[in-house]
Amino acid sequence: MPTRLFLVLAAAAAALLLLFWRPGAPPASEAPPSSSPGGEAFRQRLVAIGDLHGDIDNAKRVLRMARLTDKTDRWAGGNDIFVQTGDCVDRGTFAREIYELWYRLRSEAHAAGGRVINLLGNHEVMNAIGDWRYVTQADIKHWGGVDNRQHELSTDGWLGKDWLANYSISALVPLSPFPSAPTLSFQHGSLRPSFPNLTPYPDAINRLGHSLLTRALTPPLAKPYPPNPYSGLPAGTTREEAELYDGGGPLWWRGLADVEDDRIVCGWAKELQEKIGVRRVIGGHTPDFDKIVHRCNASVIIIDTGISYAYGGVLSALEIIYTLTPPFAPPANGTDEPHVLRAGEKYIEREEVNAIYPTGKKRIALEVRQIVL
């Protein structure tokens, strides 16, 4: 027989249970919080890789390291954006294979909702105009000889056609399709704020690059130098096209990378931000063999780390992860439907900038702000 004390305690416990129990209420660990941050409503990942100079093996290693390709070198980046900033040719042997890889990955990425953006470097244009000072004999032999190499580079060849159709000198890349999206500028060298054909950006630069490249690749191509005399820019080159290829143009200029005074460089960066409306200016061309260089709160980033075996630098890739998140979780509605972004609503914008190395990631910058879409 239960004691009188036990009966009293049991009755009290039952009363408390009736007082606080609600039918259908989830356990405390499963209940949706009323004011915690919600899940990402939009996510975009961008990866950029610098100069490769004929090294197909390291090119593939970097792509796999950045999770853009799988172990069979097929696209695995989903809807990621991949930017390569030129100088795939010269100094090494296997430039042709690198261009073939971009050709294939471009269609694979498109099918998966991603995007491959290819830029021309000064060495691509050098090869187009017949300046072969840095072309190795192994590369020429691997390409099948001078005549076959020039044919494939011409407007009659597959690579010349691909350069004209799918490569540019500069690229303006938004991180989302929404009007409020931050944009990034890419070019091979440094972008000079006083360049006379800077705006409208990047159309003015790319029109000049396309017309200069068309002149250079239209047969008969200039005889390679060496052993032949250097013929210079192709006949009919305009003053504006010559300025594009000049030392102050976006193919050759190094100012954002090699001017030591940060006050000067940050002043240029601010001027570029105001003139062309970008958040960051990203290029290659000037190698640091140990790391990706960033300046002025990462408004300037230089991604050439001498990846090719011709230099022996560190393998690297730049990664930018951009997300939009509602400030608070939406009310529970019993469904798993994704959040629909709406113009005029507030979101938390998060932009994470990382350098990827064989040893892992290193944070370059993190910017979080509230925006109105």
CATH architecture: 4-Layer Sandwich
Average pLDDT, rounded to a whole number, is 90
- Strands of the widest sheet, in order across it, are 4-3-2-1-10-11-12
Domain count: the total is 1
**Radius of gyration in whole Å, from Cα?**
27 Å
Give the helix tally.
11
**Beta-strand content estimate:** 15-25%
Sketch the major β-sheet. Answer: 7 strands, mixed
CATH class: Alpha Beta
What is the N-to-C succession of helices and strands?
HEHEHEHHHHEEEHHHHEEEEEE
Specify the CATH homologous superfamily.
Metallo-dependent phosphatases
Number of strands: 12
Question: What portion of residues is helical?
Answer: 25-40%
List segments where confidence is low: pLDDT < 50 over at least 5 consecutive residues. 1-38
Task: Label this structure with key terms.
31% helix, five-stranded mixed beta sheet, alpha/beta, 373 residues, 11 helices, 12 strands, single chain, disordered N terminus, Purple Acid Phosphatase, chain A, domain 2, seven-stranded mixed beta sheet
Please tell me about this protein's structure.
It is a single chain. Strand 11 and strand 12 form a beta hairpin. Helix 8 packs across helix 9. The protein is an alpha/beta fold. The N terminus is likely disordered. Helices cover 31% and strands 20% of the residues. The strands form 2 sheets. Strands 4-3-2-1-10-11-12 form a 7-stranded mixed β-sheet. A 5-stranded mixed β-sheet has the order 5-6-7-9-8. The chain has 11 helices and 12 strands. It has one domain: Metallo-dependent phosphatases (Purple Acid Phosphatase, chain A, domain 2, 4-Layer Sandwich).
